[in-house]
Amino acid sequence: MSAAADALAEYRPALRPRVLLSDALLDGAATVHLIKDTDSGSSFRVGPKEHFLIARMDGERSLREIGEEYAREYGRRLDGARWQQILRMLGTRGLLAGADARTPAGPAAPAGSAAPAPRPAGPAEPARGVLRGSVRLVADADATTARLHRAVGFLLAPGWLVPLLVLVVAMEVVVALHVGELLVDARELFTNPVLLTGAATLLWFSTALHELAHGVVARHHGGTVAEIGLRWRLPVVIMYCTVGNYLYLGSRWQRIHTALAGAVMNLLFLLPFCALWMSAPLDPATHDALGALLLLGSAQAIAMLVPFPPLDGYRIVSQLCGATGLAASTGTYLRLVARRDPAAADYPRRARTAYLGYGLGSVLVLVLILAAVVAAAHHLLTV
Question: How does pLDDT run across 193-236, given as a tens digit for each residue?
Fold first, then answer.
């Protein structure tokens, strides 16, 4: 072995500390891993074999040791030219610690070894306009979320969270049992401008808490929050909270918990109003307005769990399926099936199951939504 080849074999590459690697994700018929540089916000995709190598670049293993692990896993060894390509690709993207000084020179990585992600993962500069735009509310969103987590993070402990969830379920049972009455209350609410303004303000505040809940739960699981701000599409103005490393949280269930947190927060927000509605001595107008608030707030929370992009329910289903771009991939696969295209058979069984299940589930959800709207309209027209 030449001195240069021996030096390359003993090289111990290390990813920079702020480089993140995702789990395996379905992307069409392929399985990919996402890699993100949190300093620049850029991300890209690699296949399982490239991820196998990159995930082992910890500064402790030499290329010789990584290569031996790779050979045991995949039954082939990488030659020096291929190592040079991989290292040059990582060094060019600034993902290796000390890349400029330590990465051996070599030809650029071949096209297709790392495909760009469909959009940058990092926070974009806020856009501002009269009719639509966004603006940051805090300079350091991650520090703000850390303070919120210190203040309320104890509620995520099972001893607190389980009883709260039991109360939420009980509240929703009550809402379901009184849904006819609450529909009438909601109709009447829209005829009272004062009470309607109060209910709308409370529901807007609930959406703000919804966004902050995403950030607090992500922080609880080791995530970071990139931005907290306001986004407007006039006449609608909403708060947003961007979890910068959502896809890179430690486990699938942590990502599901983070996505689910917003809707749970919406329902927790309603608990004191439910208690007032059920037990406080209120005048009829206020009692009915609280009933309408319960119905509208519950509908708001449930709507966020509908599995269509860009709602939280879509993120949850995507994690359950282990897929990125689930809706687009499903559409592509189902079109191939409908045309009886042989390419559909190239999809692995896991992908076929995920895309067919999501497609059928989406149709079922649409039918249920339509049925609920028709039933609500019929009730209101007949009372």
Answer: 999 999 999 999 999 999 999 999 999 999 999 999 999 988 88
Q: What is the pLDDT of residue 41?
A: 79
Cα(264)–Cα(152) distance, rounded to whole angstroms? Answer: 15
What are 86-124's pLDDT values in tens digits? Answer: 899 888 888 998 754 344 433 333 333 333 333 333 444
pLDDT in tens, 258-290: 999 999 999 999 999 999 999 999 999 999 999
Task: Read off the tokens for 201.
Answer: 């303000």
Peptide bond into 123 cis (omega under 30): no
Whose CA is closest to 225, among 138, 133, 134? Answer: 138
By percentage, how much of the chain surpasses pLDDT 90?
77
- Counting runs of H as helices and runs of E as strands, what totals does the chain give? 14, 8
Q: What 3-state class would DSSP assign to 183?
A: helix
pLDDT of 383: 80
Q: CB-based burial of residue 321 (10 Å sphere; 0-12 exposed, 13-18 middle, 19+ buried)?
A: buried
Torsion angles phi and psi, residue 34, rounded to 5: -95, 140
Lateral strand order in the sheet of 236-243? 132-136, 225-233, 236-243
Backbone angles phi, psi at 297, to 5 degrees: -65, -40
CA 174 to chain centre: 30
Q: What is the 8-class DSSP label of residue 125?
A: P
325: left (phi over 0), alpha (psi -120 to 50) or beta: left
Q: Is the pLDDT of residue 190 over 80?
A: yes
Measured CA to CA, the distance from residue 205 to residue 63 in angstroms comes to 54
Query: DSSP string covering 240-296, please?
Result: EEEETTGGGSSSHHHHHHHHHHHHHHHHHHHHHHHHHHHHS---HHHHHHHHHHHHH
Sequence-separated contacts (24+) of 149-153 with Cβ below 8 Å:
149/216, 149/219, 149/220, 152/216, 153/216, 153/219, 153/220
Residue 222 CB coordination number (10 Å): 11
CB within 8 Å of 210: residues ≥ 6 apart: 262, 263, 265, 266, 304
81 burial (CB, 10 Å; 0-12 / 13-18 / 19+) is exposed
Residue reference for tokens 């940051």: 136
